[in-house]
Structures are given as structure tokens and as C-alpha cells.
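Review form for a predicted model. The reviewer records the input and the model, then writes brief findings.
Reviewer: anonymous (R2)
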Amino acid sequence: MQRIYMRRRVVAAIVMLAAAASLVGLVRLLVGGGSEQSKVASAASAHDTTLLSSPDAAGITAPPTLPPDTTVVDAGRTPTPSDPARVYIAGDSDAGSFAPFVSRRLHATGVVATTVDYKVSSGLARPDFFDWPARLSARIPKLNPDIVIVAFGGNDAQPIHGLSKQVDTPEWRAEYGKRVGAVMDLLANDGRTLIWVGVPNDNRPDITARLKVQDEVVRTQVAAHPGVVFIDSWNIFSGLDGGYAQYVVDPRDGISKQVRSDVDGFHLNTTGAEILAFHITQAVEKDLVNRGAERTSEVSRAG
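Model under review:
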């Protein structure tokens, strides 16, 4: 079990590096690759660096972002270019992989500012490794986000300290459900919209069985919190038979594409992260319109 999670930690770091390289390539393409332009792009990236809680995660930049210690108090307003909606993306390496693509798509709306905060190999099962409830309790009052996007999962289908070593037990379900529910209570409050990104399945049946338990617990909590928006990654990245899939149809162009990492088969590759970002962004865009944002060509899939 320990070897599996150590392997995933290494793979997660590789995925983060690939995402960072992809985004750097995009920036270079947009600025034309000139040396002077590259300096300008580098300076902009330094100004817009996303907030990272993970010292071992690759730095990913996404425009625009809020300063880490911004304290804001107003809420319930209409997002505009001069007063954008504040979007906070948090979670594990999966959050880190889709965050730059979500940020880029939301930046195109002109009415969103993002803050990204992720920790590789983290989750809700091991607060001794990284305490997300404490982290979120500290960040939410400072950032006061309008929309929160979280992803926990790839590291949570494991024993919880003090309980049976088996994941599929009533005790484990109850404890994990309590933790998920507490995070939902914290985040889906004070006019905030919470978008919870579910976990996908794995190419190994034994791990998928444990992930399925976790996914069921999260769905139960979503049902108990009607305001929470759930992104069904399990279904998005499954085949027609409902099982594991290396290839899925990209909703952006209707073409079947490989979406999983060649390294471990669980993590999403760049295409997979972009597809997941597409689904997440649709949910955010709908919320922006509900908040009164002007419907534009970029905010066109909502509603």
C-alpha cells in the first residue's frame, strides 16, 4: 500500500512538470518567442504566480490571480472586469493538473480572478501529512472566494488512523463521510458556490474497488448538501461499459483521445486535464451567469 502511494507521488510530480511545460510552451507561442517578449512574459508570470502549498510541486502560473494574503469582505455582487469573481482552486495533484487550464478558460471571460492552492499526495484521509480542513479554514476568510473548486481523492482510498485497515467498512465510510461533510459545510457557505470534483477510477481493480467506496461516500454527502455542484469524473473518464478507459470522446470536438497518463494509468494526461477543465468551467460559467455576469461569447455555455 505504501509503495502504491509513493509511486503515485512520483507520478503526480511528473504530471505537474508536464502541465507546467505545456503552459510555458503556450506562453511562448502567444508572445512569439522573442527574447524581449520572453522577458515580459516571465515578468508577468512572476506577478501572477498561483499560490502553492506544496514545496515539491511544480510552479504553474495562471492569469490573473489574487495576492496570497488578500482580505476581501464584499459578497453577492455581479462579476465585472473591474470587480471579478474570486475563484479558489484547492486540493491534491489532480487539482494541480486541471487548475491551469481552468484558470486560462476563466481568464477569457474577463470577469474572473483565480487562486490555486494544491499539495501533491494530500487529501482528507491523512491530516497528519497535510491538514486540509485547517488550511481551508485559514484561507477562506482571507480570500473570501465566490466560487471554490476542490479535488480530493487519489490519495484518500487508504486506511484512516485509528480505524480498521480496510476501506470498505461502516466505520471508514462514517469517518470519511464526516470529514467530507465538514469541508462541504465550511466551503458551501456565506453565498459561496462549491464545485466538488470527483475521483476517476483506476486501471487496477483492487484500487478501483477502494476508490469506488470513497466515491460513494462523497456522492452521499453531495446529496446531503444540495447546493454543492458535483463533477462526475468517474463517469467522464469511463468507457461505454462504465469501466476503466484509456480513451474517451473529447466533448470539445467529438474525437476519441487518450486521457490517462502512460506512467500509472490513473492520473490524467494533458488532454484528460483539459477535458476535465472543460466540464469544470461549464459549471463555473453557469454560476457566473446566475450571479449576473453579462453573457459573452466566452460565457456562452452556461444556463
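Findings: The CA atoms of residues 49 and 61 lie 5 Å apart.
Further findings: Residues 2-290 form a domain with the Rossmann fold fold (CATH 3.40.50.1110).
Recommendation: see findings above.
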